[in-house]
Amino acid sequence: MPDLKLVDLLTLESLEKGLYRGQSWDLGFRALFGGQVLGQALSAARQTLPESRIAHSFHSYFLLPGDANKPVVFDVEQVRDGNSFSTRRVKAIQDGKNIFYMTASFQEPEVGLEHQYAEMPNVPDPETLESDIKYFERYIDELPTSLREAIAYHKPIDTRTVQVIDPGKPKIQEPRRFIWMKAQELIGSNVSMNQEILAYASDYHFLATCLQPHGISIRDRNLRIATIDHSMWFHHPFSLDDWLLYCTQSPFTGNGRGLVKGQFFNREGKLVASAMQEGLMRRKGE
Question: What is the pLDDT of residue 2?
Fold first, then answer.
């Protein structure tokens, strides 16, 4: 993986009005990491808006696997600009093919009715947990080559899983996972950049939660798993310079698909963002 920071990855080159290019990171999967496309597409949409308009939601579809060794071009369509809201449609292109679509909505911040009917679970503090990458590095000699390469996946974000799940020894357990995460680099207070980095991080271990009640490893050679769609909602400003708790849960798998939902809480228990994803989940012979 190039010696780049997430801020660099999500800072796109402007080719012309509404057209941008982002570089790619090879995280050991050969295919492009979905979180990269999410973050870069949101960044591309933001380039066409005044700084006062902040993303509040996006909905996206992954159409084709991307190539991690090639840049991605983002074509932004300005769908609507109202008094309070703006809508953008983003198309991601590689080799002349559309690999991804996103529709994102932005809003001028305003004061309104507010409630939170979501409770942050009681879990150990992140300082008491080992970083996921240190866990894998400790057993690196025992890992297959594919898993050794995938360690790069953990480098941009410091993730600390509350209940460690060994991909080499999967076991049946409830479809819930709690992960503390924060950026490895200093991000600062820019709301949009923090949103783009959280979009990147929201794809971490997300769909894998669906596999837990089946006792199947994400690295099972008979498994075919891929993201179909991914949506996200931003509720409050947050900073990835401090820890967020990512709580994921899978309410359903079936028909060759898995559904997973996630909630992000800051350390004070405020719900700052939500996400949902559906993915393809097939095993050979089924």
Answer: 45
d(CA 195, CA 191) in angstroms, rounded, equals: 6
Contacts of 186 (CB under 8 A, 6+ apart): 241
Q: Nearest 5°: CA angle at 240, between 236 and 243?
A: 95
Could you report the per-residue pLDDT of 82-121, keeping only the tens digit for each?
999 999 999 999 999 999 999 999 999 999 999 999 999 9
pTM of this structure: 0.93
Instruction: Give the per-residue pLDDT at 151.
Output: 62
Can you give the three-state secondary structure of 226-255, one letter per residue?
EEEEEEEEECCCCCCCCCEEEEEEEEEEEC
Domain locations in the chain as residue ranges: 6-109+126-283
Catalytic residue among 36, 195, 203, 209: 203
Decide if 203 is catalytic. yes
Number of H helices, E strands in the chain: 5, 12
Q: Tell me, which fold does domain 6-109+126-283 have in CATH?
A: Porin (2.40.160)
Which one of 36, 159, 227, 248 is the catalytic residue?
227
- Dist CA 274 CA 129 (whole Å): 24
Beta-carbon contacts of 201 under 8 Å, excluding residues fewer than 6 positions away, are 35, 157, 159, 181, 240, 246
pLDDT score, position 229: 98
> Tokens for 143?
């890992």
Is 159 among the catalytic positions?
Answer: no
Catalytic residue among 94, 195, 248, 277: 277
DSSP, collapsed to helix, strand or coil, labels residue 180 as: strand
Regions of the chain with pLDDT less than 70: 1-4, 138-154, 167, 285-286
* Residue 62 contacts residue 126 (beta carbons within 8 Å): no
- Contact call for residues 264 and 272 (beta carbons, < 8 A): yes
Q: Is 67 a catalytic residue?
A: no
